[in-house]
């Protein structure tokens, strides 16, 4: 439902959790091997957007790219069995517009389109990450525009209806 309307994600200086939360089912891993799951969020294009006449339209060239960050799932490393037994959620990941962030949040520019990407790496610890190959997955349904305030009232209503923590949006 969110994707059909055009998902918007709030970004704040302090960091804000994504809603809807990124959630994925994983299969095909070696049950006994250890894996680290990571997420990054990359620009979808070189444009800046604005919400005009009830739709998102290009309004210029993108701002310079913020420093790329990887968010390591807090259960990492874990065995293939552990990852495959239930859906994996990235509910603790936070988005910020603070370029000086020291908390490890993902830094984004407001009014830009982004695509979350899930990376699965067979590795026993974070120190061996760079020596191993990544499998990367991106799902178009998870793309969003970063905003500091919701622009589309339909998104605001969907978030109120579906997020038990969004009751502060009710006016």
TrEMBL record:
The keyword Translocase does not apply. GO terms for molecular function: DNA-binding transcription factor activity, RNA polymerase II-specific; RNA polymerase II cis-regulatory region sequence-specific DNA binding. Keywords: DNA-binding, Nucleus, Transcription, Transcription regulation. Its main location: nucleus. Residues 1-171 form the T-box domain. Coiled coil: none annotated. GO terms for biological process: cell fate specification; positive regulation of DNA-templated transcription. SUPFAM superfamilies: p53-like transcription factors. It is found in: Nucleus. Transmembrane segments: none annotated. GO terms for cellular component: chromatin; nucleus. Gene3D superfamilies: Transcription factor, T-box (2.60.40.820). The keyword Nucleotide-binding does not apply. Pfam families: T-box. This is T-box protein 6. It comes from Branchiostoma lanceolatum.
């Amino acid at each position: 439902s969110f994707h059909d309307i055009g998902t918007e994600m709030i970004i704040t200086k302090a960091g804000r959790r994504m809603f809807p939360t990124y959630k994925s089912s994983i299969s095909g891993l070696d049950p006994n091997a250890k894996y680290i799951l990571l997420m990054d969020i990359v620009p979808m294009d070189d444009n800046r957007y604005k919400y005009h006449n009830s739709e998102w339209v290009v309004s210029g060239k993108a701002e310079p790219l913020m420093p790329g960050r990887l968010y390591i799932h807090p259960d990492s490393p874990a065995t293939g069995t552990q990852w495959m037994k239930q859906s994996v959620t990235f509910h603790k990941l936070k988005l910020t517009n603070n370029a000086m962030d020291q908390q490890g949040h993902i830094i984004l520019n407001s009014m830009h389109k982004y695509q979350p990407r899930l990376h699965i790496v067979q590795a026993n610890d974070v120190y061996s990450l760079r020596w191993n190959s990544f499998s990367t997955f991106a799902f178009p349904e998870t793309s969003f525009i970063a905003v500091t305030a919701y622009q589309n009232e339909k998104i605001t209503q969907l978030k109120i209806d579906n997020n038990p923590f969004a009751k502060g949006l009710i006016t």
